[in-house]
Every structure is written in C-alpha cells, then in structure tokens.
Write a structure and sequence with these properties.
The complex is a heterodimer of chains A (514) and B (240). Helix content of chain A is 52%, strand content 17%. With 514 residues, chain A is of the alpha+beta class. In chain A, helix 2 packs antiparallel against helix 13 and helix 15 runs antiparallel to helix 17. The longest helix of chain A is centred in the C-terminal third of the chain and has 39 residues. The chains are: A alpha+beta (514), B alpha/beta (240).
Chain lengths: 514, 240
C-alpha cells in the first residue's frame, strides 16, 4: 500500500524524474509515428504492387511464347483449380516507345503488354489506375472524346477533340507549306528540322513526315485512330518544379497523340516491328517502377503484329498467364504445385507469386522498419540510463526515508518494490504521454508537414519523389501495445539497480547521519 | 513492582571496523526492560547507546550475545520476523523525528499499517485505520494538523506526530532515541510529559535513550553507559 502512495507522491514531487522520462515520451512518440508511417507506406505499396501484379504469374521465356493458352489454363485448373478465382493470358514483350517531341524522337524502354481487356481486370486492378472515368469502369482501347482525368487541374485537353484540332492544324500547316514551296521552290524543305522557328511553331509537323511511309495515304487522323495504346504516365511525362516551386507535369504526349512502338516479332530470327499506336489513355498507379515502364495494348493486336497466330491452325500464343486466387488460398502452395506440373527443366516457364516478384522491395521496407525500430528502441534505452542515473540520485536523497521505512518494519523487498513501481509508473506516464502525442501527431501528420513546410520552406513530403499526395499512415494496435510495453519494460529494468541498492541499504547507516 | 521483563539483552557485543582496526563499541551489555516502566539509558555521545538501540530494535546484528523480546529470541530471528517485530511489537521515535516528507501527518501515522497490510486489506479496513490514526493524533494534540506535511510543522509537532506513528500499531515497547535532543527545553518537556502520560494511562513500556541526566532522573529505572569505558560495567542506578 505504502509503496503506491509513496510512488505517486514521488511522481508528483520529483520533477527531475519527470524530466528523465521526457526522452521515453519522445522515443515512444517517434516509434509510433515511424511505425504508423512505415505501415502506411508498406500497406499502400502492398496494395499497389498486389493490385498491379496478379497473385501468380506464369511467364514463358520463349520469344514465341506458349501456344494455346486455353489448353494451359485447363491444365492449370486441373492442378490448382479449387484455388483459382480468375485467369488472364497476355503477351509481354520488351519494346521501345518513340514519342515525337518538337520534331525529334524521344525514346523510352518499356514493357509492352498485350492484354485481354475482358479478363485482365479479374487478375489485377489495371482499369482502376486509368485516367478516364469510363475507362476505369470498362477498359476500352478506343480513343474517347474527352473528359480525361477530371480531378486533375492542369491536365491538357485530350481525346478526339484534341486529335481533331491537331489534325486540322497540321492540315492547314501542310497547305501553307505547299503554298510556300510553290512560290519559293522546294529547297527549304530538307533543312526544316534544324530551323528553330519551326520547332516552336509546330510540335508534330515533322512527325507526320517521318511516318507517312507507314501510313496509308487515305488515313485521316481527324476521324481515324491507330491501334489504341495505354502508356504508363511516367513514360511520357516529366515532373518538375516551376519558378514558384509548384510541382508541374509536362506531357510529351497525351490521349489523342500518336506514338510508335518498336518491338521484336515472335520468329526465331527476330525482326523489329515498327508500329504506330494512338494513345487512348494514361496509366498512373503511383508506383514509379510500373508507371515508367509499362505500355498496354489489345492482346489480339499484339499477337497479330508479332506473328503469334499460327497461320495454318489459327492457334494463338501468349507469353504470360496470370492467375487470381481465391481469398485465403496459399500462394506458395499453388506456386509449388504449378512448378511441379511445369518443371523448369522441361518448360521454359518462370512461375512466381507477386511476393516473389516484389520480394526485394518488400524485404527492403521490412528491413528499414526493423532497423528504425531497433534504433528508436536504443534511444529509449538511452533514456533508460537517464532514469537509472536519476533513480540513483533519488535513492541517495531518500536514504533517510528508506531507513525510516525499514525502522517501521518495511522489508527490503518492500523498499525495492517502491522503486520498481516508481520506475513502472514513470514508464507508464512517459510512454502514455508518448502514445497520446504520437497518435495526435499521426492524426495530423499532413497538417504538421504543411506547417513545417511553411516554416522551413523545405518540402517534407515531396510529390515529385512519391506518388502519394498525402502521407499514408496506419495505426496498428499491436504495435502500440508492444511499444508501450517495451518502453515500460526499459523503465522498470533501469530502476532495478537503484531499487536493489535501496533494498540493500543498511537501515543503521541510513538513519545514522544525525 | 511488576517484574515481567519485556526486553532483555545478554552479553551484547558489537564492534565496528575502521581501516582494519576493530573498534569495540559494546563490550558485553546486559539490560532488562520491565513492563510498564520507563527505563532510561544515559550516556554521552559516542558511548554506544545508539548502537545498542539499533541492536535492540533489530536494525543491526550483534557480534555476540542475545536479545530476547517477551521471551522470544529476536537477534537471530528471520528477516521477516525482525521486520514484523519492528512493525508490530516496537515503536521507535528518533531525535530527528524521521517523518516521511512526502506524506501528511495523517499518512505518516498510517504508515505502519500501510506497511504491514496488503493494499486490499488496508483498503477494506481504511475507515477503522483512519479512526485509529485520528485517535492517536488527537491524543498527541495534533488532530488539527492531520493534513499538514512535516515541512509545515514545528519540531515539537513533528515529534508528536512521530509518537502517534510509533504507537499506531499498539506496541508493547517504545524505543525513544534522544526524543528531546533536537528540541528546546520547554518543548522537550512537553514531549516528555506526553510520554509520561502514555506510560501512566496505558501502561506503555518506554526505553529512553538520552544524554541528559535530568531526564534520566525522572525514569523508573536508569542505566548509565560509561563513554570510552563502554559497557562492561553498566551501573544500575535505582532513582525513582
């Protein structure tokens, strides 16, 4: 009884001890904030990675791909049918994307994916990340009239409206050029590309010239489109800060523009296919790895371009089969079953779960979280040494009282428990304050980031680096519990030595200094 | 005279070690405290009377000899028995009062009960405990100071609170170590008469340790501790 009474009295009267637990408070608050933010990041990343990648990916490394995907799927269903919720076949091929920029060519390396829009949404959340609201509901590889990215302020006019206007402009320009040529002759034409005035005036002027060999003469860009393509947003944009330090996106191309794709055909003696596509939408998942390397088109078109349809039998080939598993299915078990069915020494297939593919990234995030936790717990441990030192001081200061308590019949254990309880209580108060502080911080983290930005002028959460607009956080009650318990444990452990000293203090020595 | 012996010390020896030199403090002390009497132990400072008191209060162990409390040997008893002995059978007051500065007078008086009882037991019997504490404070004339902390009290008041605390558990013996040593004469006198009252009204046995012959003269039995010569021949002076 007396130990709790004394603990509470000490807590109220010893401010030096309260000072020593401020570091516990700060440590706990930081741990909670860091863990919440890391959990938020990793959950967001998981969700996005998982949303983009299907549960199981069966990749064929052959250039020709695997023939007859339906037969493959039948075999897969035989092996793991009860766990499969959906499947989709697609063609993945490395490609080079070429975008016209002021008459010159920008090239990007991309993974070009031919997908079956009717089944692809079963295995991944592809449509969800498209910019046009109608495409988000139902993916279409036809250009839409307009209304792209309604939530985005500076998104340029796109769609058919833009395409028609651009075509009209180019047509007028062409007429103008022909008039000029009629008057001045055609000498000027070969040097046009180097003239600065032209580069500013007509962005796509030269483009039409370099491509007109591929295009049938009667192709009218104002009413027709090439096969549709969806580009990852970072393949065709660049993000920068303007003079006012505002984040700006510049679009090299937008829905309605034409781009060209260069990719190998499926023959053993591979040749490059050079094909024009019309951008019908952009794809923004928030994962820069995906946004900067992916381009999507229709599966049947890509199969045709690459020659993956057997002219004799009409059997089509794909390179990839993706599976979506039912809720609760064991990813690794399904993967292993499929690996047994398609052994690597016979089939050139690579069968992976989405976790296998993102393993290094997820492991990196986990490692980062672990290391941060260790570091922050070391901070609390340092605070523990503060408590230790303070407690030794208090024990020395309380020498007489300890003697008195013993003279009144308190046992060594009882005296020890006073200081242990005191440590526990301090730990509880310190980590409790840290908990409250940390939770408040996490709740208002974006506002706090804003305030810090205004004060320091430094962007805390740079949207040019991360594709989240807000700092994501997740508060995990389990984490809170073990952080609290850990901090309180450290406080108690730190008070063990001083408490032992108090318990062993000889009452006569304690009472003697008179 | 009632000859029942409450506390008895036989051939107590105790020495301290300083730089490997043994300094004998007690050289075989014999002492008997009879129930219901005030026994005083007079000696100059450094004569070893505080050491003797610590031994009698089971705060320290003698090198040799025995201490019996109501027939029970206490000097080699278990730790918990010695703790209980101090808590239940003995009341101790000190020259410097030794109140706990964080607690009020009332809480200080309640401290022995809080130490001996579990949280639950104390909580269940807190009303009775509080009544008893109020009664004790009332008897030492300090009820109006019940909520005051030691730092807000005078020396005399603190010693009264200490007396109330020491008698809280209704002990059979009060050990008083220079109870007036830090007080002016008048206040000291008040404290002494308060102790006398307890002795007369309740038959409280008191062992008073003092350096003041005048105080010793008022006691029923008096032992003298010769300083320097220490305790081999404790003179027994029958005064009253």
């Amino acid at each position: 009884m007396y130990r709790w009474l004394l603990c509470f009295r000490y807590l109220r009267t010893r401010y030096i001890a309260l000072a020593s637990i401020i570091s516990v408070t700060l440590g706990v608050a930081t741990l909670i904030v860091v863990n919440s933010v890391m959990a938020g990041f990793s959950a967001e990343m998981h969700e996005r990675l998982h949303g983009l990648a299907s549960d199981i990916l069966i990749e064929c490394h052959l250039s020709k791909g695997m023939p007859d995907p339906e037969a493959h799927i039948d075999q897969i269903m035989e092996v793991v049918g009860e766990d499969v919720a959906g499947h989709s076949a697609s063609v993945h091929v490395p490609a080079m994307l070429g975008i016209d920029f002021n008459g010159q060519l920008i090239t990007r390396h991309v993974n070009f994916v031919g997908l079956d829009a009717s089944t692809y949404d079963q295995v991944s959340q592809f449509g969800r990340y498209l910019l046009h609201p109608d495409n988000q509901k139902q993916v279409s590889f036809s250009l839409r009239d307009g209304g792209y990215a309604p939530g985005r302020k500076q998104f340029p006019t796109s769609g058919w409206d833009y395409r028609r206007a651009k075509a009209a402009y180019e047509k007028a320009l062409e007429e103008e050029r022909q008039k000029r040529n009629a008057v001045f002759g055609s000498q000027e034409k070969p040097v046009q590309g180097n003239q600065p005035s032209f580069q500013i005036a007509a962005p796509s002027e030269l483009f039409s010239e370099t491509t007109d060999c591929d295009v049938a003469q009667e192709f009218d860009p104002s009413v027709e489109q090439f096969p549709g393509i969806v580009l990852g947003i970072s393949t065709c944009t660049t993000r920068f800060r303007d003079a006012n330090n505002e984040v700006q996106d510049h679009y090299y191309c937008r829905p309605g523009d034409d781009v060209r794709m260069m990719f190998p055909n499926a023959s053993d003696n591979a040749k490059v296919i050079n094909q024009k596509f019309t951008v019908v939408d952009l794809y923004e998942s928030g994962m820069s790895e995906y946004d900067s390397t992916f381009a999507f088109c229709r599966l049947d078109q890509l199969q045709e371009f690459r020659g993956m349809i057997d002219p004799a039998s009409g059997v089509k080939s794909v390179t990839t089969i993706q599976l979506k598993l039912k809720e609760g299915a064991d990813l690794n078990a399904v993967r292993d079953a499929l690996r047994r069915r398609f052994p690597a020494d016979i089939y050139a297939y690579n069968i992976q779960t989405w976790r296998d593919m993102q393993g290094p990234l997820l492991a990196a995030v986990r490692l980062e979280t672990t290391i941060l936790n260790i570091l922050l717990f070391l901070i609390i441990a340092v605070a523990g040494f503060g408590i230790l030192a303070t407690f030794f001081m208090i024990v020395v200061e309380k020498t007489r009282d300890i003697g008195t308590l013993k003279a009144l019949g308190a046992s060594g254990k009882g005296v020890m428990s006073i200081f242990l309880s005191y440590g526990l209580l301090l730990g509880f108060v310190g980590s409790g304050a840290g908990l409250v502080g940390g939770l408040i911080f996490v709740q208002n983290i974006n506002e706090i980031a804003g305030v810090i930005e205004t004060i320091t002028g430094q962007e805390v959460f740079d949207p040019t680096v991360y594709y989240f607009n807000e700092i994501p956080t997740i508060i995990d009650p389990f984490t809170l519990t073990w952080v609290m318990l850990g901090a309180m444990g450290i406080a108690v452990i730190a008070s063990v030595l001083p408490a032992l000293r108090a318990a062993r203090m000889h009452p006569v020595n304690a009472l003697r200094f008179e | 005279m009632n000859s029942e012996i409450v506390l008895e010390a036989c051939q107590l020896k105790k020495s301290y070690h300083k730089d490997r030199i043994e300094v004998p403090v007690l050289r075989g002390v014999n002492l008997q405290v009879q129930r219901g009497l005030i026994t005083s132990l007079v000696g100059r400072s450094g004569s070893g009377k505080s050491t003797l008191m610590h031994l009698l209060a089971a705060l320290d162990y003698p090198d040799d000899g025995q201490i019996h409390f109501a027939g029970e040997r206490i000097d080699n008893a278990s730790r918990s028995r010695r703790d209980a002995y101090r808590n239940q059978n003995l009341g101790i007051i000190f020259q410097f009062y030794h109140l706990l500065p964080e607690l009020t007078a009332m809480e200080n008086v309640l401290a022995p009960l809080m130490i001996s009882q579990s949280v639950l037991h104390f909580f269940n019997h807190r009303k009775a405990a509080k009544r008893r504490a109020e009664e004790m404070l009332d008897r030492v004339g300090l009820l109006h100071r019940a909520t005051h902390k030691p730092s807000e009290m005078s020396g005399g008041e603190m010693q009264r609170a200490a007396i109330a605390r020491s008698l809280m558990a209704n002990p059979s013996l009060l050990l008083a170590d220079e109870p007036t040593g830090n007080l002016d004469t008048d206040t000291g006198q008040e404290i002494l008469s308060l102790l006398n009252t307890f002795n007369q009204d309740d038959g409280l046995t008191i062992l008073m340790i003092t350096h003041d012959d005048a105080i010793a003269k008022n006691s029923d039995t008096c032992y003298r501790m010769q300083d320097g010569e220490l305790n081999s021949e404790t003179a027994k002076l029958q005064v009253a």
